[in-house]
Amino acid sequence: MSLLSVKGLDVAFGGVPVLHGIDLDVEAGSLIAVVGANGAGKTTLLRAISRLAPARTGSISFDGHDIGHLPPYAVARRGLVHVPQGRQIVPGLSVEQNLLVGASNLEGMDSATLDDLLAAEYARFPVLAERRHIPGEALSGGEQQMLAVSRALMMRPRLLILDEPSLGLAPQIVRSIHGTLRQLTSEGMAVLLVEQVAFAALRISDRGYVIQNGRIAMSGAPDQLLQDPALVSHYLG
Ligand SMILES: Nc1ncnc2c1ncn2[C@@H]1O[C@H](COP(=O)(O)OP(=O)(O)OP(=O)(O)O)[C@@H](O)[C@H]1O
Ligand SMILES: [Mg+2]
Q1: Atom 9 of ligand 1 has which residue's CA nearest to it?
Q2: 20 lies in which domain range?
Q3: CATH number for the domain that contains residue 166
Q4: Could you identify the atom of ligand 1 that is nearest to the CA of residue 53?
Q5: How far apart are CA 125 and CA 135, in angstroms?
Q6: Does 140 reside within a domain?
Q7: How many structural domains is the chain composed of?
Q8: pLDDT tens sequence across 159-177
Q9: pLDDT at residue 235, as a whole number
Q10: Is residue 83 part of a domain?
């Protein structure tokens, strides 16, 4: 059984359809990539999954439960945590305060657990430890993306969904962030990764989906997709 299962998802804004009949599955411990051009509907898909955007029809189930009617905070509490496009670091808060912002509101979270979670994130990204007292917005782009990932991991997700974490970052930093995602899946977490940079994302994934004009145009094994002439011409053409 899939950890996340989306079936027949339609989303429209003000009557204008944006997503059409999306079917998508994420198995526990897997890294699934969704790639597509500017405006294809990637952000809308992730926002619908984490309940930030309303679905018109279709079903979204997570860990065997229908989450299609839950508010976003309840989805996050169940372990489906969204790293938004553009990172959304809270201005005026330090790196450490940014890390604590989501997790400290979780039920049953005590200060000893928060300390352990912080220590784990500082070990994962030592630069965040060095800079823990400076404002989050003063970090470089790559460091801000690390902070956004760590902030989400503080909520102990079972499924982490990320919207274009590589946007605007140097290839070396993209490789490091993608490497972190692979590491997380080897520890049992599932990852749904949305990227415009199709090749880098597909190369590290277990399965990929290509979204075009709000529809899944292709899906399958990364090797197969990377050899598909239509995909290659679309992205390299
Ligand atoms: N809140 C909204 N209201 C109206 N239209 C929207 C809204 N959000 C997105 N859209 C439209 O939906 C379509 C898909 O947008 P979306 O942001 O999901 O694409 P994307 O694949 O994430 O693009 P990008 O790679 O640029 O982030 C676009 O035509 C966009 O203009
Ligand atoms: Mg987007």
Answers
A1: 44
A2: 4-88+156-236
A3: 3.40.50.300
A4: 1
A5: 16
A6: no
A7: 1
A8: 999 999 999 999 999 999 9
A9: 64
A10: yes
pLDDT in tens, 97-151: 999 998 887 888 899 999 999 999 999 999 999 999 999 999 999 999 999 999 9
Residue 125 lies in a domain: no
| List of E strands, 63-133 | 65-66, 80-83
- Provide the mean pLDDT of the chain: 94
Structure tokens at 68: 């299609």
Q: Is the CB of 18 under 6 A from ligand 1?
A: yes
Nearest CA to ligand 1 atom 31: 39
Give per-residue pLDDT as tens, 176-188: 999 999 999 999 9
Cβ(42)–Cβ(36) under 8 Å? yes
The Cα–Cα gap between 234 and 20 comes to 20
Round to whole Å and give the CA distance between 127 and 227.
Answer: 38
**Is the CB of 48 within 6 Å of ligand 1?**
no
Question: How far away, in angstroms, is 44 Cα from ligand 1 center?
Answer: 6
Decide if 15 is inside a domain: yes
Is the CB of residue 86 below 6 angstroms from any atom belonging to ligand 1?
no
